[in-house]
Design goal:
By secondary structure, this protein is an all-alpha fold. It is about 60% helix and about 0% strand. Strands 1-2 form a two-stranded antiparallel ribbon. It has a two-stranded antiparallel ribbon with strand order 3-4. Helix 4 packs antiparallel against helix 12 and helix 7 packs across helix 8.
């Protein structure tokens, strides 16, 4: 269908004798060319630097109406005790439903990852440890779930693509993205991020939980039939509830209500709309999400008999030792901080160019779906080859209950090893991401990870996270950053200790945490909220 006709000019020159004539025909062609540009997407390399944009992409986004609350009708409507009680009740509901959603997502992730591993182990048992058939099964599994999740995202919930953190930052500062919040976005985000993780992609679900919390916040206000909630159906109050939803999602992910509240505050900078009372309400919502997840997790694992109040999250580093840090260990913080900054900068640069490439060439549904399946195939292939050719069998540590808490015993993966042995790379690559992180952060005199295995984990996750993030599927970057940074910190510490000829488990744990924080801060550009979250997750 032809586009609308552009403006035209009368080809008449009124130039004086000594003044050069104006070429109206040339001017008309230039204007027609610019007008035609508005009907197609710009070259991605120029869409960031050219202002105003020559295409119409800006028309897809609208501004939130914050001036509505300054009108006379809103100023004079008053604020009742019932409305204040309803507001606190809304924050409670947002925290509860966010914690419930995080719990159900964790169950689904564990089920799919355990099922994939169980099928591989059955094939290994039936085929006398023929690893080719086990690999083919896992490769088919990963391709199916990656492509299935990508199709659902593209066709049913395009607003759920990515982590949603960038859109949250824009939303909190007044930009209303289309399809950013809604039922379809919420459902697709919850399921497809798990499909992507099960499909072997180097992504996490902790970032998308912030977007999920924002969707839950708006849905609670607009779809629960409580008359007092009508007070909050405006962009000013809605932004406050979105902040609380974001905080509760991060809090449920890390079991960190303080860090989750600070995360939302740091994310929304310059944060001009925050007040002290809003900060308390957001913290209450975050605490409710963490409490709900803690209760549901305990009920699911131990039943109703031994319930207790603790800080549970979908991700925990495990019970680390009480660390005494000598002043000489400060050099590890300097080195890991520099490495995290350099690798984070490289991460942003490479991923930006990957985004330009995708915007220019990955333009159809078929290409986007095939790209997602291809990355799932390449990731599981690389990890399986490393497990087969570099993962030697090791004896499972003989833990003594007097030395190690039973909760700290890891989920060892034997792959093709004997019953009393395990494959360290299979444990790090083929388990859930939470188990991988606990394995990296765990230290005792019975358990070690060799340098070559740490280097394999760090480089594999780094390369595939840089290139994978941006495919058409919901994806987060928190867990990959913790895995990359944790393996970097542990690799550095093991190398230093072997070089100097000593063993210090406290230093090992300390630098593993510092490496994870340095890597996350390097490409997420977060500071104080990230520090608090890392401390609360320990």
């Amino acid at each position: 269908m032809p586009g609308p006709a552009g403006p035209t000019f009368n080809k008449i020159s009124t130039a004086a004798d000594n003044t050069p004539a104006v070429d109206f025909e040339k001017m008309e062609k230039e204007i027609q060319h610019k007008f035609a540009l508005k009907n197609r997407a710009m070259d991605p390399r120029g869409s960031i630097s050219v202002y105003p944009r020559l295409d119409l992409d800006f028309g897809k986004k609208k501004s939130l109406n914050f001036d509505m609350m300054k009108t006379e009708i809103f100023i004079k409507r008053g604020w009742s005790v019932q409305a204040e009680a309803a507001r606190w009740f809304a924050y409670l509901l947002i925290g509860f439903f966010t914690g419930l959603t995080a719990f159900l997502m964790s169950l689904l992730e564990e089920f799919l990852m355990d099922k994939r591993l169980q099928l591989a182990e059955k094939i290994l048992e039936k085929t006398d440890d023929n690893q080719l058939y086990a690999y083919l099964m896992m490769a088919g599994w990963c391709i199916f779930f990656c492509m299935f999740g990508s199709i659902l995202t593209i066709k049913c919930g395009p607003g759920a693509n990515g982590s949603g953190i960038a859109e949250i930052m824009a939303y909190l500062n007044g930009v209303n993205y289309p399809k950013f919040i809604g039922w379809d976005t919420l459902i697709i985000k919850c399921f497809c991020v798990i499909f992507g993780i099960s499909g072997g992609l180097c992504i996490g679900k902790e970032g998308p939980l912030a977007h999920i919390g924002a969707c839950i916040a708006v849905i609670v206000i607009y779809y629960i039939p409580i008359p007092q909630f009508d007070y909050f159906k405006n962009d000013v109050n809605k932004r406050e509830f979105v902040c609380a939803g974001v905080s509760s999602g991060v809090s449920a992910a890390f079991g960190a209500p303080i860090g989750g509240t600070l995360f939302s505050y740091e994310l929304s900078k310059p944060s001009a709309f925050w007040t002290f009372s809003m900060l308390w309400r957001t913290f209450f919502c975050s605490s409710m999400a963490t409490f709900t997840l803690s209760m549901l997790t305990q009920i699911h694992s131990t039943g109703w008999a031994e319930l207790s109040v603790n800080s549970a999250g979908t991700l925990k580093f495990g019970k680390l030792q009480d660390i005494s840090v000598p002043l000489g260990h400060i050099w590890g913080a300097f080195v890991l901080g520099i490495l995290g900054g350099v690798l984070g900068s490289l991460f942003i640069t490479v991923n930006t160019y990957m985004s330009f490439f995708r915007k220019k060439y990955s333009t159809t549904t078929l290409k986007r779906v095939l790209e997602c399946g291809l990355f799932g195939f390449m990731t599981i292939t690389t990890m399986t080859l490393l497990v087969i050719y570099t993962g030697e069998c090791q004896d499972i540590p003989n833990y003594k209950e007097s030395d190690v808490n039973p909760e700290e015993v890891l989920n060892y993966n034997k792959w093709t090893c004997k019953d009393n042995q395990y494959n360290p790379l299979a444990t790090l690559f083929l388990n859930t991401e939470a188990v991988t992180i606990k394995s990296l952060f765990h230290s005792s005199k019975y358990y070690t990870i060799e340098q070559k295995h740490l280097f394999a984990v760090m480089t594999t996750w780094y390369i595939f996270t840089i290139t994978t993030y941006g495919v058409w599927i919901p994806a987060g970057l928190f867990l990959p950053g913790i895995i990359m940074g944790g393996s970097m910190g542990r690799f550095y510490t093991v190398a230093i200790q072997e070089w100097k000829g000593y063993v210090d488990l406290d230093e090992l744990e300390q630098n593993t945490v510092l490496g994870a924080a340095a890597m996350l801060s390097g490409y997420c550009r977060l500071t104080y909220s990230l520090t608090v979250m890392m401390l609360e997750t320990i």
